[in-house]
Design goal:
single chain, alpha/beta, Rossmann fold, 2 domains, five-stranded parallel sheet, elongated
């Protein structure tokens, strides 16, 4: 195995209810754990901002520095590679979203463009989907791009599902509240499904983390359940193992967003064998449970499949996650390590 050292850097989240337990941090932790298990000297560090990068890189002295998401400015990266002790390192900037989501990040395209203009063959931009990798290559002709898919670590949490509650269905639609996450329409589809099957709906969301004007989406979701026989259950943000236990108690899940790439919430549901309805952007999932994010009636129908055929769908989805993980691990060990 290679003797390379790898340092993963993530920007420290604000000191709020979810802290470093964000999906981005979990994603980086999965990579760090996998590379370490493969005998590669790997470290994951959370830093305040780009000004702290030099210190951490100097201390660990890695061959490859992985910057998780877009938070180090192109000017700062140029400054870092100009420092003599950093000149031979490879720098990888991971991008965890597809193009529609990036369009909502005001600086994303300008930063990616400016990264490609830095005169260095040691800077790589690494989307987590093949699609965005090809899109970037076609637009930014001078850049160096590398497809680095997500890795997922199955923690084998024991399911706490005790069986279907008569007359009740628990549907988990977790994740940060954002317009692009489409929770409002999914809530309407869930209400329709419950009404069709004479069930009381308990619709579970994370209400403590709102982004990109998510306050308005949450306000409208709450109104859907006012004066209703159905119930909106608002959760805080969980550490990953605690979230897996909560997910395991659901009858089914839904992640039918307007744009997704890997989606750790989906992988979490699959890992505890809870069937989940997803958007067709989550390409590693079986098409059986995919649906367009605008077709609310089809979302409702797919919820029925998940509810009535829980065990076989849960089994199939877990096989797909396992196959995705095998392919992803191969890419990291054969393409990333060879940088």
């Amino acid at each position: 195995m290679t003797t390379k050292n790898i340092l993963l850097l993530i920007k420290t989240q604000s000191h709020d209810s979810y802290g470093v337990t964000s999906g981005l941090y979990n994603s980086a932790q999965f990579v760090s754990n996998f590379l370490s298990k493969c005998g590669i000297d790997t470290k994951l560090v959370s830093v305040a901002d780009g000004n702290a990068v030099d210190k951490e890189v100097t201390l660990f002295n890695p061959d490859i520095v992985v910057l998780e998401a877009l938070w180090v400015t192109p000017a700062k990266l140029q400054e870092l590679i100009n420092i003599k002790r950093h000149q031979n390192r490879r720098w990888v900037i991971r991008v965890h979203s597809k193009a529609p989501f990036l369009a909502n990040e005001g600086m994303a395209t300008s930063w990616i463009r400016d990264y490609t203009r830095i005169e260095s063959d040691k800077i790589f931009i690494a989307p987590n989907t093949e699609e965005l990798t090809l899109q970037f290559k076609s637009v930014f002709l001078n850049g160096h791009f590398l497809h680095l898919p997500n890795l997922y670590e199955d923690e084998n949490i024991k399911s706490e599902w005790t069986g279907k509650t008569p007359g009740v269905v628990n549907i988990g639609c977790f994740g940060a509240i954002r317009p692009m996450k489409n929770q409002y329409l999914q809530a309407m589809a869930a209400i329709d499904f419950a009404n069709q099957h004479n069930l009381k709906l308990r619709f579970h969301i994370n209400a403590s983390r709102k982004e990109q004007s998510g306050e308005n989406a949450l306000k409208n979701i709450r109104v859907l359940f006012q004066d209703s026989t159905h119930e909106l259950i608002e959760h805080g943000w969980y550490h990953h193992k605690d979230f897996l236990k909560v997910a395991s108690t659901m009858d089914l899940g839904c992640q039918v967003s307007f744009s997704e790439s890997f989606n750790i919430v989906t992988a979490d549901f699959v890992s505890v064998k809870v069937p989940i309805v997803v958007c067709d952007d989550i390409e590693w999932m079986p098409s059986l449970m995919m649906v367009s994010p605008t077709e609310w009636k089809k979302i409702s129908t797919k919820m029925g499949f998940a509810y009535w055929f829980r065990k076989p769908i849960g089994f199939i989805q877990k096989l797909y996650l396992k196959w995705y993980s095998i392919k992803s691990e191969w890419i990291w060990l054969n393409k990333f390590i060879s940088l």
